[in-house]
Design goal:
The chain is an alpha/beta fold and 243 residues long. Helices cover 35% and strands 25% of the residues. The strands form two sheets. The chain has a seven-stranded mixed beta sheet, with helices on both faces. The protein has a two-stranded antiparallel ribbon with strand order 2-3. Helix 2 packs across helix 9 (227-241). The two termini are 27 Å apart.
Amino acid sequence: MKSRRCAPLVTAAVVAVVNLFGAAHLSAQGAQPLRLATQELPPYQMIEGDRMTGIAVRRIRCALDRLDISYELYMTTWSEAQLGTQTGRFDGFFVGSSNAARAEFSVSSIPVVSESLAWYLPLNSEIDPNDAKDALRARYGAKFATSKWRYLHRNGYNVVMRPRDADSLLNMLLVGDVDVALEYELIFAHFLGERGLSESQFQKVPFRRQHMGAHFSKRFVEANPLFLKRFNESLQQCLVALQ
């Protein structure tokens, strides 16, 4: 089956297109294209010109092209990507870490991206974010409603803000609204570069390495029992080829 690639769609357009899915939107082979949603998260997923690109997007496209299937990629909000997968508007979303909430309605692929998480602090800070006694006396931040943000809450950290993205989180650290920011190193480096800043202007304390995969709805996996194994094999080949 020949691959079909959709143009990147922003949130408002996603809603309009999703509402059109039905018999008229089926491929010539009689099967509906695989529909995967994501969020704008440079440098993993982003819009450049009129095209969706980024590290994760290139790897996902490579894996699906190798399978020679029809697919469509949608750029929307992170919450919409996950809710749409739960309700059947999308067949999956990418990239995200595995957790209990996502496991209720989806199955993860092998990692599309493996990235190190780090704590970022002002250079003169005396806070040790890996020391439990500093959890309450400092103000912590991570992107709102992400697994990182939930981790801070579950483990008793004093979470004071709800940044919508990594750029907002960086700004909160710069102006002093938070004392410690938790983010992926590559993502934070991207936004530091956009502001003409470098990591040497902050303390960076390693936290842990996180694996992020593509999550396919259980409904889709059950209807296509061979797909996930084939996708994982194809993705593994792409990870080697794109190094």
